[in-house]
Design brief:
The structure holds two protein chains of two kinds.
Chain A (H helix, E strand, L loop, with lengths): L1 H10 L9 E4 L6 E4 L5 E5 L4 E6 L4 E6 L12 E6 L6 E6 L4 E5 L8 E5 L6 E6 L6 E6 L3 E6 L5 E6 L5 E6 L6 E6 L3 E6 L8 E4 L5 E6 L6 E6 L3 E6 L6 E7 L4 E6 L6 E6 L6 E5 L8 E3 L6 E8 L2 E9 L3 E6 L6 H4 L3 E5 L5 E6 H12 L29 E8 L6 H6 L1 H10 L2 H9 L7 H14 L3 H14 L7 H19 L6 H14 L10 H9 L1 H10 L5 H10 L14 H9 L7 H5 L5 H6 L4 H10 L14 H13 L3 H11 L1 H4 L4 H17 L3 H10 L3 H4 L47 E3 L6 E3 H10 L15
Antiparallel strand pairs in A: 1-28, 2-3, 3-4, 4-5, 6-7, 7-8, 8-9, 10-11, 11-12, 12-13, 14-15, 15-16, 16-17, 18-19, 19-20, 20-21, 22-23, 23-24, 24-25, 26-27, 27-28, 29-30, 30-31, 32-33
Helix pairs in contact in A: 7-8, 8-9, 9-12, 9-17, 10-11, 14-18, 18-19, 19-21, 21-22
Chain B lengths: L1 E6 L7 E6 L5 E6 L3 E7 L5 E8 L5 E6 L7 E6 L4 E7 L4 H4 L4 E8 L6 E6 L7 E6 L3 E6 L10 E7 L4 E6 L10 E6 L9 E7 L4 E8 L8 E4 L8 E6 L3 E8 L13 E9 L6 E6 L5 E6 L3 E7 L5 E8 L12 H9 L1 H13 L3 H4 L5
Antiparallel strand pairs in B: 2-3, 3-4, 4-5, 6-7, 7-8, 8-9, 10-11, 11-12, 12-13, 14-15, 15-16, 16-17, 18-19, 19-20, 20-21, 22-23, 23-24, 24-25
Classes of the chains: A alpha+beta, B mainly beta.
Family (chain B): Belongs to the WD repeat SEC13 family.
Subcellular location (chain B): Chromosome, Centromere, Kinetochore; Lysosome membrane; Nucleus, Nuclear pore complex
Protein name (chain B): Nucleoporin SEH1
Chain lengths: 799, 366
């Protein structure tokens, strides 16, 4: 509070504050400076030298110091400084090496007072002593610094940096005799004004030129320097050696640096090229600017805080010929726009999450005190408005954590046990995909067996709905006449039970249900060898009433209810079905409302398990078996009849994110369905599935899918940009013709070195001598020997 | 069940982005401390930092992996107005034995005049391409004509979005029926317009043209993410703004094949959730696009899943520090940590809340 009162006394009542405003200048500015009472600003440039009054609503031109018809080069200013004690006194540094002082108190139009032409090259910087009225310092491109006593016609002392050009000179704010100078070779020197013979201290501050330096306005001995290496460094000069205390990395070379008044750790910078913005940094957080002023359209050349005790208003001049007053409240805050969180899903359902520590911690607090949601608005905002807010600085950091999905698709029980989150995790974990891809059979067996196998795989992976789909596909597309008895029986069991359970046809008479159950009871033992597990079936049937309630009863049931219900009903676990999975099947039923239903057969109980097993089923018997289980169509319908249904089902799977199912079915059904689905869609499914397989590094499956695909665009995937260059293992010459017979030595190139037979399939060879053979043979040979089996003398290595 | 595994990231400032690679074995993080770190998962499931290097001279907003077919390649973008492409060098150096790898800069893309806010590689079937978007509202699409030469990138398209861009997402669909498409979101908080625009490549004009603006999203958008397509005929887009939104874009069939002009879409809002009760910063889809994760200023990750009726529901909440949300979250360790720096944390939390608008920023005496 002490400081605040001081500010208000110094500033008076009306002088502070100010809105963002600007005015156009006639020419680009090179430097600006304010007078002590912060009411006027001087703008100097190559073709401009004017004084503007800072008023409430805008800038008003007060005085043009460029007088005369043909202004001399002395008016071409590189720098300007308004004296902080004598408000009539200004100094400019001219590009021709002149140092000029101006007295606004002169009655005539030409205010020029004194002219020092001692520097040989451009003067980069002039600096008045903060308290001494008559002392002026200059730094020039010629490498010298000169100290002038304005009461004399010449400089009183000359300081030779013994370095390259001087870019900046600054009197220390607190130490009367000390000034700092920065050089183009990266050095900073400290001088005592009374000792022109040599510097007191020198250190290398930057790589490349140091364009600017600024003493901290408080007596801390802090010096900020900015250089072409895009860095701002804060040095502690109070110790024997200059110590780097902070380093801010900006995005362009730093042209000016100015400490912010009343804020210990803040400083403003602007850049020499590329970047037109003005940044205010908190040096303790050197990566993101605290605030940014983005108004200028060209390089900002001069920045100055309007009043030495007012941190809210900044003035700037620019090459775009504008003079701006920036109000701090209008600054953009990059920190606020910066994203405090990162989130990414991994392949296996892992979730990487990085968040600002305070967000996470604040959230935890809110969790403990549920009365205050949000956690951060518990206190009124003024609670934080303490006098010196900059002293409170939380180190900003993020916490990084990976949420690993646990519980596989197989472990459905424990997944459900965990409640809602458990169910999610089981769904997010991608093991089921990998396992399914590995275990599915897509070719090499009769259609019915493929379906059975895949249904079994799906069942084992706790995906009953997929399993049912496979079974149904088999029923739809198998031709009953060609099936063997056991397969037929399987078909009956597999096809009917899930149908019963998941459909729960409303018209399914209870009597039928009972009968069905009884007949199954008889068969339990005899059917053990079947693919489907009879015990499971049995339980499913018994539990079917309960299930019917939620599958059909109320689609709007809450997830929680679903889960809890399943939790209670332990017997149903294997039949655990996510609600969405019931969807396509249900849909299919609606597709078949007109399917003929042979009631007389449903009522006839002549099919029992034992019969089915003992006798080779005739087609008619198979029909009856199906009809018992409420199959809705006669089996003699042509497969094409199901085309649209299957097509719709596949599209549904794809839209649910299970392109694996779509592609697998597509391959297994082959010609049966291919014509139904347009090539573009097929290709899309294939590419999507192959991409997924490759993500999981399932290269073999991926290649199998590519091989089995019938899309031209997919089939050629394996052939693009693959060239095999083969040398004959006998004569070491390249093999030109197709096939495996070398046209030079007329031998087969791929003979196993151990058994001397032609190798088909995997051929392994030594990279050194080129001899090899069957994988197994080579492995066993090299287990006992180190030399090549051909006797070529090479020491082969097998790893 | 999720198990939280905390990683000592050791970034010196905020982490702005996390990104898994194609196979989920590697992870890259980028931070305001101007560095990028690469993490590799060991066999025991631990994440080890194998590379950490200074990438930019400003905050690094985003980091993203290229398809491994192009090598181990990362792209990063920064406040310093550049985007950069990095490649891991495989060599027989000592670094390898110490478990470190070496990344070298292949190119710097310097076309932007303002902060580059996002960078994304295009889907693999388009070749080696990447898109950047910047705060001045320009989307730039670069292509490496020779995939073996990562230092040659040519600027193919410059698309003006009129609004300051904050995020971009490619439509990952590999179908030939879907022309290349991306969505770009804006965090502009001045104008009251649609903040998500969708651009589509037109084969005839060989240019990207705006296909759609989601007019209902008028608040600043922080993240957009197309769901993995996986053979769908339509597209699903998640948006992080003041809430989580999920849009479905159904391409409408063109009457005639000759119509040039961009595809028309039927835009449906599938879901909209304000459960975060604050700004939402990130959205991310799982690989089968069945699960959406979102994170917000409440410090929580929420998981969203659709049931068979296409009703999206929250199915899980994860807290950043791994504590369960609905259970007893008052773990002694966390409590003491926040207790010591209680005021500081609250202070920073206010700063975080200010992000919503400038009006509150004035209250900050800074």
């Amino acid at each position: 509070m002490e400081k605040m009162t001081r500010v208000s006394t110094v500033l008076g009542s009306a002088s502070v504050g100010g809105k963002t405003m600007f005015c156009h200048l006639d020419a680009p500015a090179n430097a600006i400076s304010v007078c002590r009472d912060a009411a006027q600003v001087v703008v100097a440039g190559r073709n401009i030298f004017k004084i503007y009054a800072l008023e409430e609503e805008g800038f008003t031109e007060r005085l043009n110091l460029r007088v005369g018809r043909k202004p001399s080069l002395n008016f071409s200013c590189a720098d300007v400084m308004w004296h902080q004690v004598d408000e009539n006194l200004l100094a400019t540094a001219a590009t021709n090496g002149a140092v000029v002082t101006w007295n606004l108190g002169r009655p005539c139009r030409n205010k020029q007072e004194q002219l020092f032409t001692e520097h040989k090259r451009t003067v980069n910087k002039v600096c008045f002593h903060p308290t001494e009225v008559h002392m002026l310092l200059s730094g020039s491109q010629d490498g010298f610094m000169k100290c002038f006593d304005l009461r004399k016609k010449e400089s009183v002392s000359t300081f030779s940096g013994q370095s390259e050009s001087v870019r900046d000179v600054q009197f220390s704010m607190k130490d009367y005799f000390t000034f700092a100078a920065s050089f183009e070779n990266g050095n900073v020197q400290l001088w005592d004004i009374r000792r022109p013979d040599r510097y007191e201290r020198m250190f290398t501050a930057h790589t490349g030129p140091v364009f600017c330096c600024d003493w901290h306005p408080d007596d801390r001995g802090w010096l900020a320097t900015g250089g072409r290496d895009k860095m701002v460094k804060v040095w502690d000069m109070s110790t024997n050696r200059a110590k780097e205390v902070y380093c801010v990395q900006t995005i362009a070379s730093v042209a000016r640096v100015k400490w912010r008044p009343e804020r210990k750790h803040h400083l403003a910078t602007c850049s020499m090229m590329v970047d037109h913005n003005i940044y205010v940094w908190d040096v303790r957080r050197p990566y993101i600017p605290f605030a940014t002023f983005e108004e200028h359209k060209d390089v900002t050349t001069g920045i100055v805080w309007r009043h030495q005790h007012d941190p809210q208003v900044l003035l700037s001049g620019s090459k775009d010929s504008t003079l701006y007053q920036h109000a701090f409240k209008d600054a953009s805050r990059p920190v606020d726009r910066a994203n405090p969180e990162g989130l990414c899903f991994g392949l296996l359902g892992d979730l990487a999450f990085a968040a600002k520590e305070s967000l996470v911690a604040g959230g935890a607090e809110a969790g403990r005190k549920p009365g205050y949601p949000g956690g951060d608005r518990r206190y009124p905002i003024f609670f934080f408005k303490k006098p010196d807010v900059t002293e409170q600085f939380a180190q900003v950091a993020s916490v990084l954590s990976v949420f690993e999905a646990l519980g596989g698709g197989g472990g459905g029980v424990c997944g459900i046990g965990g409640g809602v989150a458990g169910g999610v995790a089981a769904g997010s974990r991608m093991d089921w995909f990998v396992e399914t891809a590995r275990l599915y059979l897509l070719s090499g067996k009769p259609f019915a067996e493929l379906c059975d196998h895949n249904a079994k795989v799906a069942k084992q992976l706790n995906r009953p709905q997929v399993s049912t789909t496979w079974t149904m596909l088999r029923i739809m597309f198998s031709e009953p006449a060609h099936l063997s008895s056991s397969a037929n029986h399987n078909m009956g069991k597999l096809g009917t039970l899930p149908l019963l359970n998941s459909f729960n046809m409303k018209d399914l008479s209870s009597g039928l249900n009972e009968r069905n159950k009884e007949s199954r009871q008889d068969n339990i033992h005899s059917l053990e060898t079947n693919i489907n597990n009879n015990d499971v079936d049995n339980e499913e049937t018994e539990g079917s009433e309960g299930q019917a309630e939620y599958v059909f009863g109320d689609a709007e049931l809450d997830d929680d209810d679903l889960y809890s219900m399943e939790h209670d009903n332990q017997t149903e676990e294997p039949e655990y079905t996510l609600p969405q999975e019931a969807f396509p099947l249900r849909h299919e039923i609606m597709e078949q409302p007109s399917a003929p239903e042979p009631p007389e057969k449903a009522e006839s109980p002549h099919v029992s398990g034992s019969e089915a097993e003992s006798a080779c089923l005739t087609p008619s018997e198979s029909v009856s078996l199906i009809s018992v289980s409420q199959l809705l169509f006669p089996p003699h319908l042509p497969p094409a009849f199901f085309g649209p249904v299957v097509k719709e089902m596949l599209a549904h799977y794809a839209e649910q994110g299970d392109v694996q199912m779509a592609v697998s079915v597509l391959i297994v059904l082959g010609e049966r369905i291919r014509k139904e689905i347009d090539d573009l869609t097929q290709e899309h499914w294939y590419t999507s599935y192959i991409d997924l397989l490759q993500r999981f590094e399932l290269w073999n499956v991926s290649n199998e899918v590519i091989k089995l695909s019938t899309c031209a665009a997919i089939g050629c995937l394996n052939q693009t940009s693959t060239t095999l260059h083969i040398n004959c293992s006998n004569c070491k010459r390249p093999m030109n013709n197709r096939g495996w017979i070398c046209d030079r030595c007329h031998q087969c190139a791929s003979v196993c070195a151990v058994c001397h037979h032609v190798v088909r399939g995997l051929f392994v060879w030594c990279q050194g001598c080129g001899h090899g053979g069957h994988l197994e043979h080579m492995r066993s040979w090299l287990r006992d020997n180190t030399h090549c089996p051909t006797g070529c003398g090479h020491l082969c290595e097998y790893t | 069940m999720f198990v939280a595994r905390s990683i000592a990231a050791d970034h010196k400032d905020l982490i702005h982005d996390v990104s898994y690679d194609f196979h989920g074995r590697r992870m890259a993080t980028c931070s305001s401390d101007q560095s990028v770190k690469v993490w590799d998962k060991s066999d025991d499931g631990e994440w080890h930092c194998t590379a950490s290097w200074k990438t930019h001279s400003g905050s690094v907003w985003r980091v993203t992996w290229a398809h491994p077919e192009f090598g181990q390649v990362l792209a990063s973008c920064s406040f310093d107005r550049t985007a950069a492409v990095w490649e891991e060098i495989v060599g027989e150096s000592n670094d390898k034995q110490r478990g470190l790898s070496h990344w070298i800069k292949r190119t710097t893309l310097v076309d932007s005049r303002t902060s580059v806010t996002d960078v994304k590689f295009a889907p693999k079937h388009m070749g080696l391409m990447l898109a950047t978007c910047s705060a001045d509202g320009v989307v730039r699409i670069y292509e490496a004509p020779d995939v073996m030469n990562l230092s040659q990138w040519s600027l193919q398209h410059e698309i003006s979005c009129k609004l300051s861009c904050s995020c971009i997402s490619w439509n990952p669909s590999s179908s030939r029926a879907h022309p290349p498409m991306f969505a770009v979101g804006s965090d502009d908080n001045v104008t009251y317009t649609g903040k998500v625009q969708i651009f589509e490549y037109n084969e005839n004009t060989r240019k990207y043209a705006k296909a759609e603006t989601l007019m209902t999203v008028t608040d600043p958008v922080h993240d957009v993410a197309f769901a993995p397509n996986l053979g769908r005929s339509f597209h699903v887009l998640a948006i992080a703004t003041k809430d989580v939104r999920i849009f479905k874009l159904v391409p409408l069939r063109r009457e005639t094949a000759t119509t040039s002009g961009p595809t028309k879409f039927e835009v449906q809002v599938m879901a909209q959730f304000d459960n975060h009760n604050s700004q939402v910063w990130r959205v991310s889809w799982n690989i089968t696009s069945t699960l959406l994760a979102s994170s917000g200023d409440d410090g929580c990750v929420r998981l969203w899943k659709a049931n068979y009726m296409d009703n999206w529901k929250c199915t899980g909440i994860l807290r950043g520090d791994g504590t369960p949300v609905n259970g007893t979250s008052g773990q002694p360790g966390a409590a003491s940590a926040t207790g010591t720096s209680g005021t500081l944390v609250s202070q920073a939390a206010v700063a975080g809340a200010v992000s919503a608008g400038r009006a509150k920023a004035q209250l900050m005496p800074g």
